[in-house]
Design goal:
This protein has 235 residues and is an all-alpha fold. The protein contains 13 helices and no strands. The N and C termini lie far apart (73 Å).
Length: 235
């Protein structure tokens, strides 16, 4: 752009940074442009920082993402719900549950409303950490804010509750999911069936296996393995 006499804008540089951030192999080039922005007469904005933080979190570079998050706040660039959610996702993936929950509170204090993806990431982290009941509480808060859970939210909760042996709560979530008009997929049925098998509730597992076939979901290789495991035990 400079070669044809048009000075670059932060918007055009952001487009380039975002494109480079899509590929982990070009992240260094994205940061090179980021550091060059002041030399081109521009100032990085919230979108610039957000794109880089999202890229860093996807690559598991959480320390650098946190450093950049602090920098953007110091420079007066307010993080968006997308940036907060990216960092929360990164923290959850690196098992930093307390920090992730702390960011949720920070969002609320800053007047930034979490979205379904924010809540779903935290529920997934809570379930993996054995806190299914807290994840359920977060679900109620999310619904109270008029955010409808998606299939990933429901699947995460059901899987986590099954692993904790909280099958009654898992079935309640399944019923809520169906009432919302969302249909369980193969993966969700497998989680339920496997969960019941692990605690030797083979009749319940068989019931879900039959339901799966009745609603027209074709069993995959893993499901067929469960089929033989269940019916050999029930029969």
């Amino acid at each position: 752009m400079r070669e044809i006499g048009i000075p670059p804008s932060v918007a055009s540089l952001n487009v380039l940074i975002k494109a480079l951030c899509k590929n982990g192999g070009t992240m260094d080039a994205a940061f090179h442009i980021f550091h060059e922005i002041p030399n081109r007469g521009c100032t990085p904005n919230s979108y610039t920082y957000g794109a880089l933080i999202n890229c860093l979190c996807r690559l598991g570079k959480i320390a650098k993402a946190k450093e950049l998050f602090t920098e953007m706040n110091v420079k007066g660039c307010s993080p968006s719900v997308v940036t907060y959610t990216s960092l929360i996702h990164g923290l959850c993936q690196s098992n930093n549950l307390d920090e992730a929950m702390g960011l949720l509170e920070e969002m609320k204090n800053e007047g930034i409303g979490p979205n379904v993806y924010t809540y779903s990431n935290l529920m997934d982290c809570l379930c993996k950490d054995g806190h299914g009941s807290k994840a359920m509480e977060l679900l109620e808060i999310m619904v109270g804010k008029r955010h409808l859970p998606n299939i990933i939210t429901y699947s995460t909760l059901i899987n986590g509750l099954c692993k904790e042996g909280k099958f009654l709560e898992a079935l309640e979530i399944l019923d809520r999911m169906k009432l919302q008009g969302k249909k369980p997929d193969t993966g969700l049925y497998c989680k339920l069936i496997n969960g019941f098998c692990d605690v030797h509730k083979f009749q319940e597992a068989a019931n879900f296996l039959d339901e799966m076939v009745l609603v027209g979901i074709s069993p995959n290789r893993f499901t067929w393995g469960l089929h033989f495991r269940v019916h050999n035990t029930v029969d």
